[in-house]
UniProtKB/TrEMBL annotation:
Coiled coil: none annotated. Keywords: Membrane, Transmembrane, Transmembrane helix. GO terms for molecular function: endopeptidase activity. This is CAAX prenyl protease 2/Lysostaphin resistance protein A-like domain-containing protein. Residues 143-241 form the CAAX prenyl protease 2/Lysostaphin resistance protein A-like domain.
């Protein structure tokens, strides 16, 4: 059982608080190269120091900005590894899946189905509303983007999954001894993590319906499938394909993508539709393919620590 793998009498919740601090510190360490780059350009290059997150995103050449931002997730993932291994005496596999090894077929199925959907829906939006897009393709910058994105975006998305659907999911299970509380808390925190995203400034707080809803979706497929493989694949496809296809002046990632969205953003069906329509369809597809059952128990059931310790 996936969520129970981190639940035992020795794995107290205070350890997860300490571990979270260590992971946050590792993330800050990973941001040092970006900070040094900013200081160099302001002190030597004479540029004005960026006053907000949006200014930071537009400070460097887009590929360099993307590289420096994604680099911090490498350090964060290293922090997760050391916390899991040395503070909790667990393996990374134990916060990845309940299976004996990572099931890459699950990862690639989830990646493929969401990548295909993203490509088709993006092209559909382009052909229906061509005035909202401009062709942004530049061969060399795009080739560099493909390299950076392919190498580092899966690390970024995997880091977020390991923190939320792996580490914190099991941590809140230790605290609450049930499954609904970890699912709810990790989804809310995951949504809150996107508070500084420029999309929030442009579209308002309603965008949190999408962020928290996505967190719930990823948490549900993790609990139902007894592992993170599907969530890892979905998240990687979502960020990588989106970064390659479309950018805008108000998106979290500024990239040399194929298209640039020049429309004025508004929170509409594109925010609500995935949560109330697309995600339920994906849940149905996954549940049929992997023969999920026992939804109530897996999503809301109690965790008996004595039984877990005897497994």
């Amino acid at each position: 059982m996936f969520i129970e793998q981190g639940v035992n009498s020795e794995n107290k919740f205070w350890k997860y608080l300490i571990g979270s601090v260590v992971i946050i510190v590792a993330s800050f360490v990973g941001q040092v190269p970006l900070l040094l780059g900013l200081l160099y350009e302001t002190m030597v290059g004479g540029k004005a120091y960026p006053s907000n997150n949006d200014a930071v995103m537009h400070f460097f050449e887009p590929n360099l900005t993307l590289f420096l931002i994604l680099l911090s997730f490498v350090f964060t993932l290293i922090g997760v590894y050391f916390v899991v291994k040395y503070l909790h005496n667990q393996t990374m596999l134990s916060i990845t899946t309940s299976r004996k090894k990572m099931d890459w077929s699950r990862f690639f199925f989830s990646f493929s189905i969401w990548a295909i959907f993203t490509v088709i829906s993006t092209l559909l939006f382009y052909f229906v509303n061509p005035e909202d897009f401009i062709i942004n393709f530049k061969p060399l910058p795009f080739a560099i983007l493909v390299i950076i994105g392919t190498l580092l975006i899966p690390i970024q998305t995997s880091t977020e999954e390991y923190v939320f659907r792996g580490y914190l999911m099991q941590g809140f299970a230790n605290l609450a001894k049930n499954k609904w509380f970890p699912l709810l808390m990790t989804s809310i925190i995951f949504g809150g993590m996107h508070l500084s995203n420029p999309e929030v400034t442009k579209m308002g707080n309603i965008v949190f319906v999408y962020y928290i809803g996505t967190g719930l979706f990823l948490g549900i497929i993790t609990l139902m499938d007894e592992g993170m493989e599907l969530a890892l694949g979905f998240h990687a496809a979502n960020n990588l394909v989106s970064a390659l296809l479309v950018t805008s002046d108000w998106s979290a990632f500024q990239t040399h993508s194929l298209f640039k969205d020049i429309s004025e953003p508004e929170a509409g069906l594109d925010v609500i539709l995935p949560v109330i329509v697309i995600y339920p369809i994906l849940l149905y597809i996954f549940s049929r393919k992997y023969e999920w059952s026992g939804w109530r128990e897996k999503l809301t059931g109690k965790i008996n620590i004595e039984e877990v310790n005897n497994i």
